[in-house]
Amino acid sequence: MPPTPPPGTAFSSGPHGRSLVATQDFTPGSLIATFSSPTLALPDGPSMRTTCNYCLRVGSNEGFSPVSLKACTGCKAAVYCGPTCQRAHWKSIHKAECKMFARVRETTGKDWHVAPFLLPTPARALAQVLLTNDKGIRDPFDGSDPLESNLEGFKADEQVWGDFELQAMAAMTYSGVSMNEDGLRVAMRFLCQIQTNAFNRLDADTGMSGIFLDPALARVNHSCVPNAFIGFDKRTATLRAERPIKEGEEITISYIANDKPRSIRREGLRLYYFECDCPRCVDDLDVYQVAQTSPVISLNSFSLQPDLTKFREPAIDKSGISMNQIEIIYKVVYDQTKSEQDTSIEAARTRWKLCKPLVEAKMWAVEPLPTTILLLATNWQTNYKWAVYALPLACFLATQCDPIKLVAPFMPWRIKGVMIITKLLAFTGELTSSGELAKRCTHEGIVGALAMADQVTMCQALLHIVVHQGSIGAAEDWDVLKEAKMMLKDLESLPGRVDESKMVQAWARDPEDPQAKAFFESEVLKPVNTLASFAPEILEDVLVQGQGSVVRR
Ligand SMILES: C[S@@+](CC[C@H](N)C(=O)[O-])C[C@H]1O[C@@H](n2cnc3c(N)ncnc32)[C@H](O)[C@@H]1O
């Protein structure tokens, strides 16, 4: 069956091949479509034993929604969050796959917990296709109107092609498909189609990633200035508008992290075999330039950075640094620190030193500077001694970096940034009321700003932002949203806060009301901005002078 376009959209074609276009207007944040019956949905190898192999929920004994997982008693490789998922997976694919994992184990002689890793994720995806499709004879990706494969591009890349050949042969062998030239050719095409059309179902909260392929969603082309974005929740992908989309307009998403320099974006798109011709790429615009042309700037009135236009006047002085230099800084930072996940203070020092030209130009939203700050904040957040110092960094990211990188305030990443501040304030609030803060933090500015602030009111207002924006940009059962709603309920039931609570609620109902606006500015924005203003000096002190030096202030 060929895919059908979701209501409100139509398939079309143009300079970027086939595409998905809007047949109605979509406002920013509105849901364009949900995709709940993917052709492929599987966790990647490392996540296979920590994620339900059917619904893709990440297992854990902690956190907001604990999920315990049980392994299939047959292969002991695939795990499930419960019998319903296990039965559904058995029926859809695992009955055949379970035997395949047994073959992997027999052939390699490796134990069950190693065996799945011997089959890379694309090979497992291909094996699923072969197992469910009459041994690969029938094209599962709709023979009459096949998915784009970029076959010639892959073929021309000797290394990629060689790697694909190995994966295709492994998938064929283990799935029991007889190995011959014709079969291999078809399997290779499937693999190319998977590579071109599957989205990486990346969950930054849990570190889980995997493959999600839906043939209708796969019609959506890429832009580095997209008008839509995808969210994943279990086996469902949602496509939402990031900007206003007019009837007849093409719907685009970003296949990659689009806040990186152009050459890095091009590298990320290499295996899609096209050169992006969006305005960001053609004119090599930086994040500030892209942000200033965004049609959703005004939505920020209900956010921690209500006035994004202030970054225009005066504009950031970029005369001291070229786009070329920024690309070089980016590459050297990632060459020297090896991993984007390294949260150590040593890695932060190396990054900070290399980012000096960006710091001097105050181009705080230009990567790799925000990631450098975020990684240090992440380190401090979980460090008993340093957690208080994470607060100015989080405030800085939420006011100076995130709104430039993602102008729409309902984007999940921005909402998470606000939630981090809320949690840190809940922590500093307790330290303040127990009189412990000054013992835990020697930075007089931070202690003073927190002493002057009503941290409970701040938390309450921030939680309203999370709930409001989260309800626009994410699914109702997004963990962050559920947690914020519970925290808000708890806060609003605290005794002795009737007046403050009323003020926050009045502001949340009508943030444009002059009195409510003035209240939000003095009670929330002012302390948040004061705390944020300490971030550059703290970073400089700690990353240049040494961690002890922050004590002096
Ligand atoms: C997931 S598919 C999108 C649908 C595809 N256009 C089709 O005809 O089936 C990804 C492929 O679409 C093409 N594509 C996507 N975005 C593009 C863009 N901005 N410019 C040129 N080609 C693009 C590339 O061939 C890419 O490998």
UniProtKB/TrEMBL annotation:
Q: Where is the MYND-type domain?
A: 52-98
What CDD domains does the database record attribute to this sequence?
Answer: SET_SMYD
Q: Which InterPro entries match?
A: H3K4_H4K5_MeTrfase, SET_dom, SET_dom_sf, Znf_MYND
The answer to whether UniProt assigns keyword Zinc to this entry is: yes
Q: Which UniProt keywords apply?
A: Metal-binding, Zinc, Zinc-finger
**Transmembrane helix keyword on record:** no
List residues of the SET domain: 5-256
Q: What is this protein called?
A: Suppressor of anucleate metulae protein B
